[in-house]
Specification:
With about 180 residues, the protein is of the alpha+beta class. It has five helices and eight strands.
Length: about 180
């Protein structure tokens, strides 16, 4: 079985980015992201009505990190500590050495290579430090930008499930992408 330890928190750096632990100071940006129509367009989750509704979300992130069940990084630019997005291994299946990656980014920063840079860093950490065997991503079929990002990073579309997710009064399709470890 896979053993992971997120203590101390695994802060990561890239050429332009710092991936750090999410804090309560990030709640305003989280509220913006998780309540923004464009950002949440393909994510079947309730949108918060106020910042107080995000406190349980932050607590869940902290609990998952403390129990080594998942890890979420705030993404920020090196020259500005303000959070611009986040990326996570929010579901780790230890017995299968597999994790699910998820991410979101401020809409004004799309198509600048930021999430590509963050994803590369997280995948490197996942395969080299955590010793994952595979990483999956669960994507709405119409989220072309996310699908292209995954494909650019070597992910392969493994499944297209028809109407397997019920959200907001309708059944939605799900596309599953997967990447096997490049480290053998």
């Amino acid at each position: 079985m896979l053993t992971v330890n997120f203590d101390p928190f695994p802060a990561l750096e890239t050429g332009r980015l710092v991936l750090r632990q999410i804090t309560d100071e990030d709640i305003p940006v989280l509220f913006f992201l998780r309540s923004h129509e464009e950002v949440m367009k393909y994510i079947g989750r309730p949108r918060p009505q106020n910042t107080e509704e995000l406190i349980p979300f932050i607590e869940k992130i902290k609990t998952m990190i403390a129990s080594n069940e998942g890890v979420t990084w705030a993404v920020s630019l090196k020259d500005d500590p303000k959070m611009i997005g986040h990326i996570s291994f929010h579901r780790i299946i230890k017995e299968h050495h597999r994790a699910e990656v998820g991410y979101m980014l401020h809409p004004e920063l799309n198509r600048k290579g930021i999430m590509d840079e963050a994803l590369k860093a997280v995948l490197h950490y996942g395969f080299h430090t955590m010793r994952l065997h595979s990483v999956e991503a669960n994507v709405h079929p119409e989220n072309i930008a996310s699908r292209k990002l995954l494909e650019k990073n070597g992910f392969v579309c493994e499944a297209h499930f028809k109407e397997d997710f019920y959200w907001d009064g309708q059944f939605l399709d799900t596309v599953i992408y997967s990447l096997l470890t490049p480290v053998k």
